[in-house]
Design goal:
86 residues, alpha+beta, YefM-like fold, 2 domains, three-stranded mixed β-sheet, 3 strands, 20% strand
Length: 86
């Protein structure tokens, strides 16, 4: 069963929602302006599913991908979110 809640409602009732997900095995879809933003699911639903962090051995240690990712991370540390520029 999937329950839909607004972001505001999720903030107000977060602990209750976590209990319903963990113990009641419910799925909770968090919505903002009628658009899905996130889903809370019981951990059992994630077992056996591949996650990006699980990917090992697909690239060689010296692959250019890693250099590019390091460059992106270094540039992001210089980035200031627009909300801080106000």
């Amino acid at each position: 069963m999937t329950t839909r809640v607004s972001v505001a409602e999720a903030k107000r009732h977060f602990a209750d929602l976590l209990g319903r997900v963990a113990y009641g095995k419910e799925r909770v879809l968090i919505m903002r302006r009628s658009k899905p933003m996130a889903v809370l699911v019981p951990p059992e639903e994630l077992k056996g599913k591949m996650h990006l962090a699980d990917a090992r051995g697909w690239l060689e240690a010296g692959d250019s991908y890693f250099g590019r990712m390091d460059q992106i991370v270094a540039e992001r540390s210089k980035h200031h979110p627009r909300t801080l520029n106000r």
